[in-house]
Design goal:
383 residues, alpha/beta, four-stranded mixed beta sheet, 13 helices, 12 strands, 56% helix
């Protein structure tokens, strides 16, 4: 089972669409479970049900206990993720939600930890809780009769948490162990990106090991285990993609401090609403501007000419088409102060996703037009 507290690369996205069924809001953190969870729940029930039947001879009830094991496994993942989220919120980092999916869970923490020390503890607290629960359940299991329903449930509980805790301590992103590697390298080098690179490559190596292990065991044992091989390929593939996504997100985050509304804005020329398109484009060309802002009779900006709409106007009509007809109106969150930069700028843009924004100076005058595509390009993975 994979878990993690990695945050995806900041991009404009539909934040209103839930990723699955809302289970609740423990400690104020929304918890969702995706439909893919049922795939693993069914597989665990079918595979583990036969094992329970051989051990306890309970008949159909054995499969009920196997389903309970699936629930306990994901409950263990939830506790693990809640530990990440609660500590992150304690450190002042916003947590968007927790999502439980086919291979585990993820805490969507919206900001990066400010220090390697806090990064370490946010990553470590999840496995720590899992291992503490495993130790407690194991102690109770030793005091119980293993061939009873209670003994079986305690066995399931300590095994589930041991799996979640130990697996997530493996040293590679997107696992928590990879975040521990990141924190350590960050502490040694003073560079968070260097830590992310080390953790991501650790994750890629782990992914190859996960894929190769069932193949190697099959070769040594004289035959492949189809279930183990498929599971290794799926899990290894997810780990490789997770490590790659974590690295891409880290590289994007490393560029955030360099984002400046003033520097990213395209130079713009302001024209009245009734200005013909050809005249507006002529003025823009003379001014070396790449954007056209439409104003009302008082000179107040009201809209921005959309290049796509302007390009659709045939040459014969361009001299007779007022710019207001090919412009998009400015909204309540369309104006960006030119002093916004770094994380503050990114928070504004992701909180109010639009294709373009009007950038104004301290006096309220038009400085330029900031396009979302330019921000994404500035943060894109070009390495």
């Amino acid at each position: 089972m994979t878990t993690g507290n990695d945050r995806p690369a900041p991009r404009s996205r539909d934040r209103s669409r839930p990723p699955g069924l809302l289970l609740g809001r423990p400690f104020g953190v929304p918890v969702y479970v995706t439909a893919s969870w049922w795939v693993v729940a069914v597989l665990i029930t079918l595979v583990y049900g036969g094992i329970v039947q051989d051990r306890l001879a309970l008949g159909p009830i054995a499969y009920v206990l196997a389903f309970v094991f699936a629930l306990l496994l994901y409950a263990s993942v939830l506790v693990h993720e809640l530990a990440h989220s609660v500590l992150a919120r304690h450190y002042g980092l916003p947590v968007r939600r927790i999502v439980l999916y086919v291979l585990g869970g993820v805490s969507e923490i919206e900001k990066e930890a400010p220090t390697p020390g806090r990064e370490f503890w946010i990553a470590f607290v999840g496995p720590l809780f899992s291992l503490l629960i495993a130790a407690g359940a194991f102690g109770l299991y030793l005091l119980s009769d293993p061939f009873t329903v209670v003994g079986e449930l305690l066995f399931q509980l300590w095994v589930a948490n041991l799996l979640v805790g130990v697996f997530n301590l493996l040293p590679g992103l997107p696992l928590d162990g990879g975040r521990l590697v990141r924190a350590g390298v960050w502490k040694l080098t003073g560079r968070p990106l260097a830590g992310s690179v080390a953790g991501a490559w650790g994750g890629r190596i782990l992914a190859l090991v996960v894929v190769a292990t069932p193949l190697l065991l099959g070769w040594l044992g004289g035959g492949l285990n189809p279930w183990g091989t498929v599971w290794g390929l799926v899990l290894g593939g997810f780990m490789w993609m997770g490590a790659t996504d974590s690295l891409r997100a880290a590289r994007a985050r490393s560029r955030v401090p360099g984002l400046r509304a003033r520097g990213l804005a395209r130079r713009a020329v302001a024209v009245p609403a009734d200005t013909p398109l050809t005249e507006a484009e002529r003025r823009a060309g003379e001014a070396g501007a790449e954007a056209i802002v439409v104003t009302d009779t008082d000179g107040t900006p009201t809209s921005i000419v959309h290049p796509g709409l302007a390009a659709e106007v045939i040459p014969a009509r361009r001299a007779w088409t007022p710019v207001v007809e090919v412009a998009r109106a400015l909204g309540a969150h369309s104006v960006v102060p030119w002093g916004l930069e770094g994380e503050e700028l990114l928070e504004f843009l992701t909180g109010h996703p639009l294709p373009e924004y009007l950038v104004v100076d301290d006096a309220g005058d038009v400085h330029g037009v900031l396009r979302a595509a330019d921000v994404n390009a500035a943060m894109s993975d070009r390495d």
